[in-house]
Structure formats: structure tokens, C-alpha cells
Amino acid sequence: MLGLTGERTLPGIAAENYWFRRHEAAYQAVRPLCRGAVVLDVGTGEGYGADLLASVADRTVTLDYDAAAAVHLRGGYPRLAAVRGNAVKLPFAAGAFDAVVCLQVIEHLWDQPALVDECARVLAPGGPLVVSTPNRLTFPPGNLYHARELSGDELAALLDPSFAITHRYGLSHGPRLRRLDQQHDGGLVRAQLAAPPEAWSEGVWGDVVSVRASDFVLAEPDLDGSLDLLFVAACRP
pLDDT tens digit string along 170-183? Predict the structure, then answer.
């Protein structure tokens, strides 16, 4: 099993459940776009999300720069084709994929325009690119693994030279999580970040482990107030 470093979230770790479910919600939203397609998941990490896509895709190829992640993917997820490689220099032919997915990755990269260019290159004509990233306007500052976080306008400007954005979604807390936010000073996210897990109260622990992907919602209005951004885009001619 991959170790928890703070750079990626992992399934099956109680203290990570909120972040895992938040990522899982984005992957679940993307699944319909991948049905019957040859899909590239860029910056796959542990593999749980790509495996969700593989349940509906014709073929799912994963790419991660970390050698341990690539080994883990090959051993843990047999229906994924795992490749180790650089997200800003993709080792694939032009037009090789029907869809490209890049969730919670772009904020980790110094050369973000190069990633966008490479995604455009390996996409077949008409294929969608799906990008998600934490919303810089609401995400807690100080993540050492993030090179540059983005607002909705900044993500749109980054994609614009190569892609026409077809949908702009913001991921937010649904009704149950909003109720939990009211029970914690500053909300559930702040309650988790205020202390290490071993110092959490029983209430924080109970609420964190209760979170499910269905507790998050995606909507097009109010991007600035959302937790994460999820954009769907098509290559410009």
C-alpha cells in the first residue's frame, strides 16, 4: 500500500476520509463522460478514481510520475494500464485518447501551460478534457505540495488557448455537510486542520468518518464560493 505523504489522498484511512470522499465525488461525476471511451487519467495517484472510470470505459490508461505509485497501480488495479511518466511531456501519440481526465493534479505542477498543451495533443478530435483543482479563493493556504492554486477565472484563462470550456462546475458541501459545518467552529474542514488527528475530539472523528461522496454537490453557479473547480472542455480546432 502507498504511504500517506500529504501529496495525495488514499482510501481506507479514517483520518483521510473527508478528503478521499471529496476526490471520489469528482471522479463519480466524470464517469458518464468516459463510457465506452479510451481514457487517460493524468496524475492518477493511488488508483481508486481511475478504477471507477475503468468500470465504464473501454480502456483506462493511468499516468503518474511517482515510481511507487506506478508499481502500486500495476499490482492493485488489474483493469488499469499503468504508465510512469511526466505530465508535462506525455509519452503517448497525438490523438491517442477519446477523453483525458486530470483531477486534483494541475495545482501540483510548475509548468501548468505545458500540461494543458500536452492534454490537447493526445486528445482525439472532439474528445473532452476534464480538469479539477482546489478553488484558490476558498482552499486553506499553505499546502507544501501545491505549486500554484487557481481561481475559476485563472483556470479558464489557462485552458483558453487550447480549449473551449463547455461546463464550469463548483464542488461544494451538500445539505448534510452544511449541517455538520454548523456544529464546528469555522466548519468541518477547519476543525480537521486545527489539530492532528490524534488530537481530534470524538465529534470531529465521528463526523469525518461519516462523510460519503454523495454528501458533496456539483453546480454551475457560484464558482467563487465553491470548494473545488471542475471544468469540462473541448479542444479548439
Answer: 999 999 999 999 99
Quickly state the pLDDT bin for 223 (edges 50, 70, 90): very high
- CATH of residue 222: 3.40.50.150
Residue span of the structural domain in which 67 resides: 14-172+218-235
Nearest to 135, CA basis, from 25, 49, 216, 229: 229
Q: Is the pLDDT of residue 166 over 80?
A: yes
Q: Which residues pair with 216 in a beta bridge?
A: 173
pLDDT tens for 119-152 read: 999 999 989 999 999 999 999 988 899 999 999 9
Which residue, among 126, 108, 107, 129, has the nearest Cα to 118 in the 3D structure?
Answer: 129
Coil vs helix vs strand at 146? coil
Is residue 198 situated within a structural domain? no
> DSSP letter string over 12-80?
T-GGGHHHHHHHHHHHHHHGGGGTTSEEEEES-TTSHHHHHHHTTSSEEEEEES-HHHHHHHHHH-TTE
- Cα dihedral across residues 215, 176, 173, 145: positive or negative: negative
Q: C-alpha distances in angstroms, 102 versus 2, 107, 109, 122, 175?
A: 20, 11, 12, 13, 27
Rounded to the nearest 10 degrees, the angle between the axes of helix 202-210 and helix 17-30 is 20
SS3 label, residue 1: coil
Tell whether 188 is covered by a domain.
Answer: no
Contact 146, 195 (CB under 8 A): no
What's the domain count of the chain? 1
Query: Kind of pairing, strands 38-42 and 99-103?
Result: parallel
Q: What is the pTM for the complete model shown? A: 0.94
Establish if 154 belongs to a structural domain: yes
